[in-house]
């Protein structure tokens, strides 16, 4: 039952989210952490880090969360449920692209969803930072990470791994 | 184009592409348009546009679209499987390791630093998205409204997104 629920949640979230991998985080956080309690907030943040340091899209974090919920089967169910709606929708859109492109209903709705996603992500960021950025060292790491990633083109993986090494040295 | 070839090229793309959307897009174009000439530059740009205007991760969707153009549904499935393979295997291995070592103080110290970096990363993503998408008062109000609905009133984000879609329709249909 748990796996079926996992599949439905991921299917719906992937079918509805416009605006990139990060746009899914508010929805994932709500369902996985607040609603079903499959993960703690801390584990959710760790899942984001895993999704970021592994190659390929951030969606890979769903395999990590699926594994926590249902082992290997859970991870595979999570990936299938995440990709299935994309495969269905993209193949249909590719077939009817020229007509879909001109659909003003889609265009106007997306114009509304995209800024809303920014607001949602900001709220989740605030929520996630409460438990994690508490002392001068973590505050410093967060500020450096923000600054470097905003103003340079450095791969986020380096920042995350660097912060992990620093964490090992400081907090142990 | 055999399905095996599609799988292998996307496996390469999925394995060696780090660093966000734009470096991945450049890698796609180099492999598929310049080196192998499987699709033209215009077809690639169209695939990228479709990837961005469909739900889900744009990179994944661009791959699905190209796979579909090459060999219909089986091409789309091969491209997806190839692109997701390495990341998924690594994520599963890391998950097994993480759950096994959960109470290890060294791992906890590492993840404490990592979590702070993720907060900074998300801040940077919000900043970049905001500077690109919030361009006039309507988009600013939509962003603020969504923020308050989630932060203060704990409305389900799925409902907020659907609501924003309806509002967007009402606000932007004239454009």
In short:
The complex is a heterodimer of chains A (172) and B (175). Chain A has 172 residues and is mostly helical.
Structure description:
- The complex is a heterodimer of chains A (172) and B (175).
- With 172 residues, chain A is mainly alpha-helical.
- Chain A has a domain at 2-101.
- Helix content of chain A is 81%, strand content 0%.
- Chain A contains eight helices and no strands.
- Chain A has helices spanning 2-16, 25-35, 41-53, 61-95, 97-101, 104-132, 136-151, 156-171.
- In chain A, helix 3 crosses helix 4 (61-95) and helix 7 runs antiparallel to helix 8 (156-171).
- Chain B is mostly helical and 175 residues long.
- Chain B has two domains: 3-100, no CATH class; 105-172, no CATH class.
- Chain B is built from seven helices and no strands.
- The radius of gyration of chain B is 20 Å and the shape is flat.
- At the A-B interface, helix 1, helix 2, helix 3, helix 4 and helix 5 of A face helix 1, helix 2, helix 3, helix 4 and helix 5 of B.
Present the secondary structure layout.
The complex is a heterodimer of chains A (172) and B (175).
Chain A: H1 2-16, H2 25-35, H3 41-53, H4 61-95, H5 97-101, H6 104-132, H7 136-151, H8 156-171
Helix pairs in contact in A: 1-4, 3-4, 7-8
Chain B: H1 3-16, H2 20-35, H3 41-53, H4 58-100, H5 105-133, H6 137-151, H7 157-172
Seen as an oligomer or otherwise, the chain set is heterodimer
Overall average residue pLDDT of chain A: 93
Overall pLDDT of chain B:
92
Series of H and E elements of chain A: HHHHHHHH
Q: Could you state the order of secondary-structure elements of chain B as H and E?
A: HHHHHHH
Q: Give the proportion of residues in helices of chain A.
A: over 70%
- Described by the principal axes of the CA atoms, the overall outline of chain B is flat
How far is the N terminus from the C terminus of chain B? 42 Å
Biggest sheet of chain B: strands, sense, closure? none
Largest interface: A-B, 108 and 102 residues
- For the record, give the distance between the C-alpha atoms at the N and C termini of chain A, rounded to a whole number: 40 Å
Number of strands of chain B: 0
User: How many strands in all of chain A?
Assistant: 0
| SSE class of chain A | mainly alpha
């Amino acid at each position: 039952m748990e796996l079926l629920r996992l599949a439905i949640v991921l299917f719906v979230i992937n079918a509805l989210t416009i605006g990139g991998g990060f746009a899914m985080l508010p929805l994932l956080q709500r369902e996985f952490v607040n609603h079903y309690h499959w993960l703690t907030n801390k584990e959710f943040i760790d899942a984001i880090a895993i999704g970021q340091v592994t190659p390929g899209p951030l969606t890979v974090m769903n395999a990590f969360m699926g594994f926590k919920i249902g082992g290997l089967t859970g991870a595979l169910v999570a990936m299938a449920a995440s990709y299935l709606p994309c495969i269905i929708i993209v193949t249909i859109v590719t077939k009817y692209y020229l007509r879909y492109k001109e659909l003003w209903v889609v265009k106007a709705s997306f114009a509304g969803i995209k800024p809303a996603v920014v607001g949602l992500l900001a709220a989740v960021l605030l929520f996630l930072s409460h438990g994690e950025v508490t002392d001068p060292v973590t505050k410093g790491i967060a500020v450096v990470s923000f600054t470097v990633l905003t103003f340079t083109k450095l791969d986020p993986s380096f920042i995350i791994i660097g912060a992990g090494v620093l964490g090992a040295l400081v907090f142990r | 184009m055999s399905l095996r070839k599609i799988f292998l090229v996307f496996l390469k793309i999925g394995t060696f592409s780090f660093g966000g959307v734009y470096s991945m897009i450049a890698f796609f174009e180099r492999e598929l348009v310049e080196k192998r000439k499987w699709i033209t530059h215009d077809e690639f740009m169209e695939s990228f546009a479709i990837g961005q205007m469909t739900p889900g991760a744009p990179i994944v969707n661009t791959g699905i679209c190209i796979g579909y153009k090459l060999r219909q549904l089986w091409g789309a499935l091969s491209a997806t499987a190839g692109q997701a393979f390495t990341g998924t295997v690594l994520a599963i291995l890391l998950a097994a390791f993480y759950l096994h070592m959960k109470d290890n103080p060294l791992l906890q110290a590492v993840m404490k630093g990592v979590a702070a970096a993720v907060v900074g990363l998300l801040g940077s993503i919000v900043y970049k998205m905001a500077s690109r998408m919030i361009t006039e008062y309507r988009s600013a109000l939509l962003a603020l409204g969504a923020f308050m609905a989630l932060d203060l009133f704990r409305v389900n984000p799925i409902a907020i997104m659907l609501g924003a879609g309806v509002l967007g329709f009402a606000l932007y249909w004239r454009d």
